[in-house]
Amino acid sequence: MSTFARRFSSSLVRVVAFLLTVATVLTAGQVPSTSGSATRDRMARAADTVLTAGLQAKIPPHVSDMLGISPDRNECPVSQRFERNGKVVRGFNVSLADKNNIVLFVTDEAANEQTYYLTSSRGELRKVVAVREGTGHELRVASKEKAAFHKELQYWLDRIVPRSKSK
To answer: How many CA atoms lie within 13 A of 62 on its CB side?
Structure first.
């Protein structure tokens, strides 16, 4: 192998290694399932669907206050879709005052626990509130809460605006 070929080959390997490192660093903090335009589009369509076809409901004043979506500790009127499976109730709520305030919730009636996820119409998790035995606490958004939120978000997107099947 000529000296030129060895230098070129060695340089090419270094460039490829550098580009792979840069690409890895740039994408490390991204979550493809929720940051993509397809998910944002599905989230916006889900919010519109629930606004037009959902049931009228209200988020209680103490929860609305903790989530920061209702001034003066008032209940927050929402359009809602919910499902019950035994003692577990799940809901997708869109604020009637601001459709950018979307609240997903999971209630475990047997354990007397509720978890509320405040998100935006873009699917970005903004706040998590847990109510245990009647007492609410704002949770720090850590990896466990993010994973539970993404699971819940996917649950609702799959039911409200299922992905179209490609042929």
So the answer is: 9
